[in-house]
Amino acid sequence: MPITVQGAIARSKGAPVELTDIVIPDPGPGEVVVDIDTCGVCHTDFHYKEGGINDDFPFLLGHEAAGRVSIIGDGVTHVAVGDFVVLNWRAVCGDCRACKRAEPWYCFNTFNAGQKMTLVDGTELSPALGIGAFAEKTLVHERQCTKVNPDADPAAVGLLGCGIMAGIGAALNTGNVSAGDSVAVIGCGGVGDAAVVGAKLAGASTIIAIDRDAKKLAKATEFGATHTIDSAGLDEDGVVAAVQALTGGFGADVVIDAVGRPETWRQAFYARDLAGTVVLVGVPTPEMMLEIPLLDVFGRGGSLKSSWYGDCLPERDFPMLTELYLQGRLPLADFVSERIRIDEIEAAFAKMASGDVLRSVVVL
């Protein structure tokens, strides 16, 4: 029988988060119901709420989640009832042209649940990133569930579901940071700090954190930055010169833009070494335009990359990173700034916007 639970929705553009009853249908073939333990409050949820993704309201928000499989539909073999899982929004299909050319992190046809969760009046909900985990339970495709070590704290490893994986993956997967490399990270919120952590895991010798907020720079140092640049009061050339001064005059081997604005991307472009790599992981808005001399693109060589979900493969990366966390080698718990109730999500969005938290995590 369908189950009615409490969930947090965005009913219309800009409306406050609303707690209401939602209906979870019986899982169909390939679908499962997951009892949510924790779910992080991510910038992407705020973008959904403000209409920055699309206008398919009402949205069931939440996607950085961990929990346990409680009901499975027909034909489910990937998980079993009781499995502890981190939810992912890249459940690769294996059949699209990206998967067939051995680049599944660019999968064009990722799996989602075929049925819709609804309000009690039958109104269909659009789950954020195909997950919708600001709820006591949610319905997903079995492949959206990645089994990890159940000894892990759900609040910590659940963050691998989006932002922290995006930052770590920007360094490890997209940037291909190697031992001895120099890395600069522009923007030291949750994603930027995760990129610092990823660079440290890879063995980078120089890790430069760049931000306007001294508190964020101090936090980045705790995560492994070897140098910091306070960009408040510096123009683009000033930031570039500061990076060059810390890298023997050459620029960094890899520069990661975790902000996603034209000015920060230009900083990243010019602050890299000749033939270095730029990684864009911060998400720009549709109206942003970039202007840069094409001759500079040609003359400097190297790689200009964007990183979507840290170019991760959840089945490969989530269990590995969970084990590093349990070994004390990956400080996932340090990204959890506070644990909150489901009725505190709106306040958490305000804290996120002010930079007061890395991640608020809803505990259900």
From TrEMBL:
Cofactor dependency: Zn(2+)
SMART domains: PKS_ER
Keywords per UniProt: Metal-binding, NAD, Oxidoreductase, Zinc
Uppermost EC category: oxidoreductase
Protein name (database record): S-(Hydroxymethyl)mycothiol dehydrogenase
Gene3D superfamilies for this protein: Medium-chain alcohol dehydrogenases, catalytic domain, NAD(P)-binding Rossmann-like Domain
Family to which this protein belongs: Belongs to the zinc-containing alcohol dehydrogenase family.
Presence of the UniProt keyword Nucleus in the record: no
Cross-referenced InterPro entries: ADH-like_C (IPR013149), ADH-like_N (IPR013154), ADH_Zn_CS (IPR002328), ER (IPR020843), GroES-like_sf (IPR011032), MycoS_dep_FDH (IPR017816), NAD(P)-bd_dom_sf (IPR036291)
An example Gene Ontology molecular-function term: zinc ion binding
Gene Ontology CC terms, in alphabetical order: cytosol
Origin: domain of life: Bacteria
Domain Enoyl reductase (ER) positions: 14-364
Enzyme Commission number(s) of this protein: 1.1.1.306
PANTHER family associated with the record: ALCOHOL DEHYDROGENASE, ALCOHOL DEHYDROGENASE CLASS-3
SUPFAM superfamilies named among the record's database cross-references: GroES-like, NAD(P)-binding Rossmann-fold domains
GO biological process, one term: formaldehyde catabolic process
